[in-house]
Amino acid sequence: MWKSFVDYVTGSQIWTSVFRHGTPTTPRNQALAVLSNVFLHLHPARARKGGIKLEYTWCMGGVSFFLFLELAITGILLMFYYRPTAEYAFVDMIALREHVPLGVMRELHRWGAHLMVIAVWLHMFRVFLTGSYKPPREFNWGVGVILLTLTLMLSFTGYLLPWDQLAIWAVTVGTNMARATPFLGHEGPGAAFLTLEGVNLVHAGDDVRFGLLAGRFVGEATLLRFYVLHCIAFPFIIVILIAIHFWRVRKDGGISGPVAL
Amino acid sequence: MDALKAVINWLCQPEPLITISCIVFFAVFIKLHIFAKWQSLVAMMSSIILFTLASAGDENFREILTKPDNVPIIIIFLLLPFFFWLWAYQACDNDVRTKEGRPLREIDVEPKVVYVWPHLVYPELICIVVMTLALIVWSVAIDAPMEEPANPAKTPNPSKAPWYFLGLQEMLVYFDPWLAGVVFPSLIVGGLMAIPYIDKNPKGNGYYTFKERPFAIIVFCFGFFILWILLVFLGTFLRGPNWNFFGPYEYWDSHKVVPLVNVNLSEYFWIKGLGQALPENIFVREAPGFLMTGFYLCVLPFIMAKTVFKKFYMELGFIRFNVFIILFLSMMSMPIKMVLRWTLNLKYIVAIPEYFFNI
Ligand code: HEM
């Protein structure tokens, strides 16, 4: 009964138009299941057992990627309701919990973001401990370091968006440092020497901090700037870099394994 | 009970906390084969959990522990020791295998090559389901924080950066913003990217080991555990109003007064040492500091290349060695400055506040 039903479904024209191979029980179909699927074909059809073991990779690269996707999805849903203006941002945040169905979207997004930071740290730690940054994977390690920086930047720009006391002061404290950038911040060493006919070139109204915040302090312009960075610019860059990262994992010979000396 | 709490409060001060952590850190590496036993894992994890549970009775402890944004740090405190142990276990196993001439555990599997469906795809699916469930449970259980609406006129005390940057904020105790906030973060990112080009040791590529690359692992772990994670922990749990230290069982009193007794090197040299007033000329005034910094960054590398790091120098060559040693010395400047602060109350080695140039 069941079997004939399954045979009927998997033999139907709809099914065979989607999946172009039989059930993955034979080596051929197992390979095809991976290769003919645009998502799964990030993987090779076959892999070294020692490399894909959980105790080897800790699955932390995969978890980072999963969390990134989760954040993209919940983030898009949040964007339906959230308006990045000083007038609405805070109210919209409250509404997200109070009035929106499935009011845990914000929580899913925030806790996912925290977890992603942890997962990326652990992933880097494992890559270091297995010596996987050594040739031929030096470049991919470098890509990874940029991914780590971007992950932190994404978290940081997102931190401002709730527009509550926690948000603006955390961002104020974080960006205050930029004031002290050598030569480029108005309280940085060397900035005092950059003068033109006695006029200071670097001051509170044009230094790097001003550029970051779009103002002398964290205000509405900062909110818009961080919103665009958080929702468009950084995700855009990180997607490209993740693509390069995965491509290079494959091109560098798959997940690392003992190199014979 | 109160006496015990007082002792723990005292032990958690930066000086004892960081010192003890360093001792434990090196002890673990010296006795790695003991740490790698599963009994150590059980002992370590259960003491972390027991300590947290036992302390949860204390009001002040509970208040800081249950802040929603501090949950991630608790997660780190469970995950990081576990994964570090998992490394130690596999590294020791491999080191024994190498010694006995047996194949490494990464190769010692049958069959050598497997189909990704189902051997990788299924575990991934399970992982996705578990993660999704965990996130949903966490999200339903704990609300995301929401404080009062933003008010630029009302500065909260303490004002803290997001938790993952609190290590850098803690560095501000010892270094000025241009170093702690700009130079060191850049050096961390640049230094991490430089690792593959500095570490020329061909061994330990693609498998767990400790004996074949002890120096690389100890340096990296020191930076990660002591100078990053521990400082994040300190900044989150033990720093209260005005960035003053508060023990885990201490009330965050914003009126706590901490005497500021820090002295600059120039004051040590001219006033205390030579018994005269600070010279007018900035460069003369700060000459001792400039000499010390210059010695640390320009002369010390040469001395080290001829002595302790002679072998490295031979292997790495001139350029690589210099990149390595500058990164290494910059990293070590953090603990050095800490010790100087704790023992001599040293504030700045070079102090030119006129040009925001303090080291
Ligand atoms: C958004 C962040 C990141 C994502 C989504 C990501 C994803 C991945 C994935 C899925 C793998 C396959 C193996 C595994 O799961 O361990 C991988 C490998 C690798 N990653 Fe990442 N990664 C990220 C950040 C980083 C960082 C921060 C570093 C290092 C600084 C790094 C360096 C590497 C290297 C060198 C490999 C090859 C490892 C090997 O072959 O054993 N990645 N990454």
Given the helix and strand composition of chain A, which structural class is it?
A: mainly alpha
Report low-confidence residues of chain A grouped into runs of 5 or more: none
- Give the mean pLDDT of chain A: 92
The CATH topology of the domain at 55-160 in chain A is given as: Cytochrome Bc1 Complex, Chain C
Strand coverage percent of chain A:
under 5%
Described by its quaternary structure, the protein is heterodimer
The shape of chain A, in one word, is flat
Annotation field: number of helices of chain B: 15
State the secondary-structure class of chain B.
Answer: mainly alpha
Largest sheet of chain B at a glance? 2 strands, antiparallel
**Share of helix among residues of chain A?**
55-70%
The molecules bound to the chains, other than polymers, are: protoporphyrin IX containing FE
- Radius of gyration of chain B using CA atoms only: 24 Å
- Number of DSSP-assigned strands of chain A: 3
Order of helices and strands of chain A: HHHEHHHHHHHEEHH
Distance between the termini of chain A: 58 Å
Please give the count of helices of chain A. 12
Helix and strand element order of chain B:
HHHHHHEHHHHHHHHHEE
Which term fits the overall shape of chain B?
globular
Give me a quick take on this structure.
The complex is a heterodimer of chains A (261) and B (359). With 261 residues, chain A is an all-alpha fold.
Give the helix/strand layout.
The complex is a heterodimer of chains A (261) and B (359).
Chain A: H1 2-11, H2 13-18, H3 27-35, E1 46-48, H4 49-52, H5 54-57, H6 60-79, H7 89-98, H8 105-129, H9 138-160, H10 165-176, E2 195-196, E3 199-200, H11 208-213, H12 220-251
Antiparallel strand pairs in A: 2-3
Helix pairs in contact in A: 6-8, 8-9, 9-10, 9-12
Chain B: H1 2-11, H2 14-30, H3 32-35, H4 38-55, H5 59-65, H6 71-100, E1 113-115, H7 116-119, H8 121-141, H9 166-171, H10 177-198, H11 214-237, H12 265-273, H13 282-285, H14 287-306, H15 310-344, E2 351-352, E3 357-358
Antiparallel strand pairs in B: 2-3
Helix pairs in contact in B: 2-11, 4-6, 10-15, 14-15
The complex binds protoporphyrin IX containing FE.
Protoporphyrin IX containing FE is lined by residues 57, 60-62, 64-65, 68, 120, 123-124, 127, 130, 132-133, 137, 140-141, 144-145, 147-148, 151, 242, 245, 249, 255-256 of chain A.
